[in-house]
């Protein structure tokens, strides 16, 4: 099963809640909640540079579910009594990208894939202690999409984030790679963000936490949709000329002027497939 998630979406939703609950006194009890708290300031600084992400907060679940329906998301918050003790929030992030040059449709291990060359905006990087390179593609909007094979067993969102950070500092590949074959991705899953349940925001604690992720990549471009909903209650090295990316691998999206990864996912074979027309 693919492990996916967006810290940007989680923090956007939590910030939306904090606008209604007031004092911004955030705390969490578990180790993984504490990890989120340590990176919260970094993501908060960057949210203003990501216009594709919006956050909405309300005391009424119906208002938020209408926002989710308008975004064509299947995520829904459970209704609650409007007694002033519950606050909800949703975050909706949509990232669309087109490659500078359309790739050539092909196959890899019997699955749809596409071929792209360095002259078309493809670059390779060398990850430390990895025999396989990172494949990066710069979209027309400047975002960088990276894909690299992994043997990771720990695929929680923080481990993936650390891997994405390491990728950003990986040096250019030293070798003769000029072409990559990248499998088409069609991922649509519910991300497990239940680990933030129980986290406190002021006098409120998180009672519901849901995130739905859609990530599609083909020869023309990519489309990423991350919808996060929360509710609180008060109280990759090779020297071949062609490199074929094989699952499992990590995919990430970064933006040159944003410190945090916009999106990161662990992709296994179940997430590969024909995505239809690209963006």
Q: Any idea of the CATH class of the largest domain?
A: Alpha Beta
- The 3D shape can be described as elongated
Class per helix and strand makeup: alpha+beta
- Beta percentage is 35-45%
Please identify which CATH superfamily of the largest domain we are dealing with. Antithrombin, subunit I, domain 2
Distance between termini?
Answer: 26 Å
Q: What is the annotated CATH architecture of the largest domain? A: 2-Layer Sandwich
CATH topology of the largest domain: Antithrombin, Chain I, domain 2
Radius of gyration over all CA atoms, rounded: 19 Å
Low-pLDDT segments, ≥5 res? none
Taking all residues together, what is the mean pLDDT?
88
């Amino acid at each position: 099963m693919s492990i996916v998630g967006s810290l940007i979406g989680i923090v956007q939703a939590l910030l939306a809640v904090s606008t209604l609950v007031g004092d911004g006194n955030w705390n969490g009890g578990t180790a993984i909640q504490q990890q989120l708290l340590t990176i919260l300031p970094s993501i908060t600084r960057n949210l203003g540079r990501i216009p594709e992400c919006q956050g909405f907060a309300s005391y009424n679940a119906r208002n938020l579910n209408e926002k989710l329906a308008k975004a064509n998301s299947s995520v829904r918050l459970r209704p609650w009594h409007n007694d002033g003790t519950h606050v909800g929030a949703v975050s909706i992030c949509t990232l669309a990208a087109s490659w500078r040059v359309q790739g050539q449709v092909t196959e890899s291990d019997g699955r749809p894939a596409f071929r792209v060359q360095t002259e078309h905006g493809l670059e390779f990087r060398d990850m430390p202690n990895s025999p396989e390179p990172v494949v990066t593609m710069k979209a027309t909007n400047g975002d960088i999409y990276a894909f690299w094979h992994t043997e990771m067993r720990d695929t929680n969102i923080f481990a993936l984030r650390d891997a994405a950070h390491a990728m950003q500092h990986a040096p250019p590949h030293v070798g003769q790679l000029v072409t990559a074959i990248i499998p088409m991705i069609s991922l649509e899953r519910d991300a497990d963000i239940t680990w933030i349940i129980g986290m406190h925001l002021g006098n409120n604690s998180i009672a519901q936490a849901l995130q739905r992720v859609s990530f599609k990549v083909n020869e023309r471009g990519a489309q990423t949709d991350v919808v996060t909903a929360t509710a609180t209650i008060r109280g990759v090295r090779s020297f071949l000329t062609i490199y074929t990316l094989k699952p499992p691998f990590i995919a990430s999206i970064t933006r040159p002027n944003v410190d945090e990864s916009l999106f990161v996912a662990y992709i296994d074979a179940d997430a590969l497939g024909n995505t239809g027309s690209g963006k």
